[in-house]
Amino acid sequence: MATITEEPAAATGVEADKARSHWARAWARFRANKLAFASLIFCALLIVTALAAPWIAPYHFSETDPDARLAPLLTDGHLLGTDLLGRDIFSRLIYGLRTALFVAFGAELASLVVAILIGLSAGYIGGRVDQGLMGITDVMYAFPSYLFAIVLVTVMGRSLWAVMLAIGISSWVTQARLVRAQVLTVKEREYVEAARSMGASGMTISIRYILPNAIGPLLVTTSFAIPAAIGAEAGLALLGLGVQPPTPSWGSMISEGTSYILAAPHLLFLPATLFALTLLAFTWVGDGIRDAFDTSGEDR
Amino acid sequence: MSFMTYLSKRVVRMVLSLTAVSMITFTLLQLAPGNFADIQRISAGASQFGGAGTEDMVHAFASRYGEEIPAWRQYLIFMKGAVTWDFGPSYKYPAQDVQDIIAQGFPISATIAIIAVLLSLVIAIPVGVYAAVRQNSAADHGTMFLITLGTALPNYLTGVILVLVFTLTLGVLPSSGWDGPQHMVMPVLALVLGPTAVLARYVRSSMLETLREEYVVAALAKGGPRSTVITRHALRNSMIPIVTVLGPLLASLMTGTVFVEALFRIPGLGLYFAQAAASRDMPLLMGTALFFALILMTMNLIVDLVYGYLDPRIRAAGGVSRWRRSQKSPQRQPA
Asked: Which residue of B has its CA nearest to A228?
């Protein structure tokens, strides 16, 4: 057959599915999930908006307009109105999105790094190191993570970086446990033993052979951790412990909004709506990723 | 391993963890910039040293911890009191001992948390069972959609939505305060959605699994009425995994009420904790942190014991928590 290279593309169903890699199959399943795919596009738009905030937002987030305080929706020059100080709500929502995504992605990156380091060393080295590190995760498990984040923010101040680190540090435990469990199951497989017998160092084995197996499950937990971190950032701000004003956060906007609920309900309505939509979109992406990697069958 | 050995081992581990929690909290607080007096001065906006609060605090500080004593001694003095449930006076509320503040604030947090959990059980079990029995029907998909909403939205955001509906649009419920049942409705409803979603998801997947068990198939084959088989045979066994989620759920609710308390301005314990951290109120922060950790660990212990009682296989395997941890974590979403 001359057209042998075209064969896999022409084949249908199971055979084509087998021919592709694990990742390609997962992606195909993700694509097929309309809600998840639409959410992914929405999330991508949110990320672009956050990155381009200075160009998209018509005003700076702290710029006040003394002539237009508590302006209602569709005011001239302020599409979504202004807050008590006359700051443009649309601009503050966009910068708030920037705060939320920066903190969430940064926090999850930090917690992933910690989780991978601790999980890998605990699982691979084993023995005393394992016991010690798992002892630490036990203590962290006993410390309610929100409360820990509150204490950490108090210590590190209320800068963007501090809030990010506080959320990251208080949320790595589950992922560290996951990495460790993955390492323990993979560690005794033949190909790892083969690598070891060929003289590969512990580092090489961990990174080249063990870690790739843990990426799927890690991706799933991380995709659910992102909306959780967005929620944590806003929650801290709601308590007055989030990023220092005037840097906008949806949490502090909501907190302000509750004070003027009768006079200017859009102060509460707008951030709450955008916040809810963002969380839902990220959660649906997470659902899609989980289903894409879940090969167990018809249950879901 | 006998029950008593197991129990004493767990209690020893709890004491060690509590000590670690207290040390971490204390150390972090020492590292925090500014002490209580500084914060009071800044927030009072006064340039002269010592507002009203500072005088009282220096007095309280002197009577319990002495002036100018090193941090490690302060820690020891605090912990010495803590073992006999005497956390000493708070800096910010010098007239009150921390344990009295706990006794005052915790029932409020616990009340809304417990009502929320009970309500979520009442809702989640029938919903989960129904979704499982009608797997892949429109009702099932609808339920799963609501479950996603419940897991995605934090309780304070649900609270905001409730405020927008009930206070703003309908004008029937007060948006803040705490005196009377009308103040409890929205906080409880805000808290209910999350645990309901988690529980319904567990009930559904647990039920789906049980429905495929041979004894259920056998009971159906013998001609047992479908509803009886579902409630008497399947549901009872599906409930075992639910117990494991319930403990962490209740514990996380009791500590997680802090945001709802902040939103609805309810004087619960969570709010005291957040204020204590912000104002560097060492005794209050340490006391509440230890108390919350104690609640969390006790819940986990009780759940492990109940689970061991319900399913002897796990008891025999030695240590429930190890088994439970190897399962999916309750915060994550089970398939």
From this structure: B152
Mean pLDDT, chain B, integer: 77
Structure pTM? 0.81
Domain count, chain B: 1
Query: How many Cα neighbours within 13 Å face the side chain of A2?
Result: 0
B134 in a structural domain: yes
Cβ-Cβ contacts under 8 Å, B157 against chain A = 231, 234, 254, 272, 275-276, 279
Higher pLDDT, A37 or B32: A37
Could you tell me which of B297, B235, B266, B248 has the C-alpha nearest to residue B104? B266
CA distances from B38 to A5, A55, B47, B74, B75 (A): 74, 40, 11, 19, 20
Contact B154 A279 (CB under 8 A): yes
Provide the pLDDT for residue B138: 86
Residues linked to residue A82 through DSSP beta bridges, in sequence order = A88
Question: A51 at the B interface (CB within 8 A)?
Answer: no
The verdict on a CB contact (< 8 Å) between B293 and A143 is yes
Q: Is residue B275 part of a domain?
A: no
Interface of B with A in 79-108 (CB under 8 A): none
Q: What is the CATH number of domain A34-62+74-293?
A: 1.10.3720.10
> Residue B17 and residue A138: Cβ atoms within 8 Å?
yes
The reply to whether B297 falls in a domain is no
Q: What would the mean pLDDT of B240-266 be, rounded to a whole number?
A: 78
Amino acid found at A290: R
Which range, A69-83, B271-285, B304-318, is most confident?
Answer: B271-285
Mutate to test the interface with B, among A219, A238, A260, A298 (most CBs of B within 10 A): A238
Contact B190, B158 (CB under 8 A): yes
What is the C-alpha separation between A33 and A53, in angstroms, rounded? 30
Judge: B335–A150 Cβ closer than 8 Å, yes or no. Answer: no
Q: Is residue B160 in a domain?
A: yes
Task: Tell me the one-letter amino acid at A286.
Answer: G
Q: Do A280 and B148 touch (CB under 8 A)?
A: yes
Look at A150 and B154 and tell me if their CB atoms are within 8 Å. Answer: no
The pLDDT tens digits for B286-306 are 888 888 888 888 887 887 787
pLDDT of residue B318: 45
Instruction: Write the CATH number for B138.
Output: 1.10.3720.10
Chain A positions touching B168 (Cβ under 8 A) are 261-262, 265
The DSSP 8-state label assigned to residue A260 in this structure reads T
Domain of residue B240 covers: 107-267
How far is B251 from chain A, CA to nearest CA, in Å? 9
Q: What is the pLDDT of residues B187-200, one digit of tens each?
A: 898 889 888 988 88
Lowest mean pLDDT among A258-267, B10-19, B101-110: A258-267
Give contacts of B 14-43 with A, CB under 8 A: 17-18, 20-21, 24-25, 28-29, 31-33
Nearest neighbour of A154 by CB, restricted to B160, B258, B277: B277
pLDDT averages per 10-residue partition of chain A, 300 residues? 42 51 83 90 94 87 79 78 84 92 93 88 82 80 78 85 88 84 80 82 78 80 88 88 87 86 84 92 89 59
- For residue B112, pLDDT beyond 70: yes
**Rounded Cα gap, residues A151 and B23, in angstroms:** 13
Token pair recorded at residue B43: 């927030």
Residue A224 has its nearest CB partner, among B21, B259, B333, at: B333
For residue B42, count other CB atoms closer than 10 A to its CB: 10
Query: Cα–Cα distance between B115 and B57 in angstroms, integer?
Result: 37
